[in-house]
Amino acid sequence: MNCSVMAPINVDNVNGTKVESPAKKALPEVETDTNGNEHKRYSYEMLVETANFLLSKTPVRPKIGVICGSGLGSYWNEGSLAETITEAQCIPYEEIPNFPVSTVEGHYGKLVFGRLGDIPVVAMQGRFHYFEGYPLWKCCLPVRVMKLLGVQTLIATNAAGGLNPNYKIGDLMIVKDHINMMGFAGNNPLHGPNDERFGPRFPPMNKAYRFEYRKIAKEVAKELNIENIVKEGVYTCLGGPNFETVAELNMLKMVGVDAVGMSTVHEVITARHCDMNVFGLSLITNECVTSYDQDAEANHEEVLDVGRMRQEILRKYVTTLVDRFSKVMKAHNP
Ligand SMILES: O=P(O)(O)O[C@@H]1C[C@H](O)[C@@H](CO)O1
Ligand SMILES: Nc1nc2[nH]cnc2c(=O)[nH]1
After folding, report:
1. What would the pLDDT profile of 140-160 be if each residue is shown by its tens digit?
2. Tell me, what's the pLDDT at 4?
3. Would 112 disulfide with which of 46, 83, 123, 215, CB 3.0-4.6 Å?
């Protein structure tokens, strides 16, 4: 495989327009998390270094990035989306400069470059969660790296508990919108000094999940004959790692949440900030327990079992979506 060093990134910002570089001194160098662990803040230049490293390792120039959640094979390889990627080149996170490493037991930690169908993609097999101890901005570092690599569309997948009483275990939920619960408490991946080279200080979020992609996803669900298990709803992310109490779930239900998870929202905010188009997909892995009479308890094993049960369908669905989204992207940017 040709791994020649390609022209390094030399851009003023990720969207190609010139902006003033923010004063570096405005960025706090190190942030300490609640466990006392120190996290070095990254700069734009550091992420350009990371992206150039990756570009030197692979000839693949992805326009679509996929984050594989617990339901899409971040814990196993066999039959996973990552395994479906052809001409694959896997780069472990620990080999990538400035990248965090996955700490969830059993979780993969690698970037997979290659092709889904004939579309060049990069997939994260294993993401970073807040509950692992990372600040949100660090969880989202790979999204910005993807942007620097040239990724225009992000497909963020996750496993989630179903709150909507019409949802069944194994359903897929197209994310229509999210509620940034952690943001309500002031915890936001964009918190801190803004670097205009990524995006504006105050980004809008009312079109977070691209309407066109959601429409396509519903059409594809029909074509694949899975429309009976494909729903559309509102996702929220809580910090985890514990699953929710009955009272918490009832509160979330009241405010219009359909599915609860521990990821995605901050990644989507980061992606929209740098003007990426976003599609979100949740695999409903468990029914949220909203009554004190119910005996069931959420558990991670069930999440993984349902992920395995649905991986074939998810893989086919996401692969087809990648193909359709790329056609839309070409039509917009011939
Ligand atoms: O990465 P995702 O959001 O799919 O993972 C969720 C959150 C926890 O890691 C796990 C809970 O079982 O699923
Ligand atoms: N927070 C949360 N995350 C999940 N991931 C999979 N199921 C759940 C759930 O019920 N709650």
Report:
1. 999 999 999 999 999 999 999
2. 37
3. 123
Which residue(s) pair with 121 in the sheet? 64, 114
Burial tier of 138 (Cβ tally within 10 Å: 0-12, 13-18, 19+): buried
Q: Is the pLDDT of residue 233 over 60?
A: yes
Global model pTM greater than 0.95: no
CA distances from 298 to 2, 15, 204, 256 (A): 46, 42, 34, 21
The pLDDT tens digits for 9-45 are 655 666 666 555 554 445 557 777 767 777 878 999 9
Q: Is 303 in the pocket of ligand 1 (CB under 6 A)?
A: yes
Q: Is 125 in the pocket of ligand 1 (CB under 6 A)?
A: no
Partners of 178 in the β-ladder: 235
Residue type, 223: E
The encoded tokens of residue 80 equal 């996973």
What is the spatial distance between Cα 125 and Cα 83, in angstroms, rounded to a whole number?
Answer: 10
| For ligand 2, atom 9: residue with the closest CA | 161
Structure tokens at 5: 């060093």
Three-class DSSP category at 329: helix
* Cβ-proximal residues to 117 (8 Å cutoff; 6+ apart), any chain: 319, 322, 323
Q: Work out whether strand 64-68 and strand 119-125 pair parallel, antiparallel, or are unpaired.
A: parallel
Q: For residues 180 and 239, what is the distance between their CA atoms, to the nearest angstrom?
A: 11
130: its two tokens? 């807040």
Nearest atom (ligand 2) to Cα of 237? 1
Which atom, in ligand 2's list, is nearest to the CA of 238?
A: 1
Give me the DSSP letters along 209-243: S-HHHHHHHHHHHHHTT-TTTEEEEEEEE---SSP
First CA to last CA distance, the chain: 28
pLDDT band at 82 (very low <50, low <70, confident <90, very high): confident
Q: Which has the closest alpha carbon to 238: 218, 220, 259, 255?
A: 259
* Class of residue 296 by CB neighbours under 10 A (exposed 0-12, middle 13-18, buried 19+): exposed
* Lowest mean pLDDT across 100-109, 132-141, 164-173, 205-214: 100-109
Closest atom of ligand 2 to 161 CA is 10
